[in-house]
Amino acid sequence: MRNQRWLLAAALTLPFAPAAAQAAPPPPPPRFAKCADLQAKFPHGVARPEAVDVVRGVAKPATKFTVHPVLYLANRHLDRDRDGVACEKR
Hints:
Blueprint: H1 2-13, H2 35-41, E1 46-47, E2 66-67, H3 69-74, E3 85-86
Parallel strand pairs: 1-2
Antiparallel strand pairs: 1-3
């Protein structure tokens, strides 16, 4: 019984894991200034999930864009037609 009390007291006094051992937050997604910069890395643009490219006339919608919700939110200022696909290109 005496040893059990000592173990319990020792366990309660142990320090928790240091702050350096905790996982660091992921880096923020890149924010591009213009579509040419974004398309250099993502040739067909980026989109939020379930987004569909809106087109007019006989043009076919883009379908090969990268679906990445966090990256889209960081670059939604580049989505001019507000269809959920930024810098879309066929």
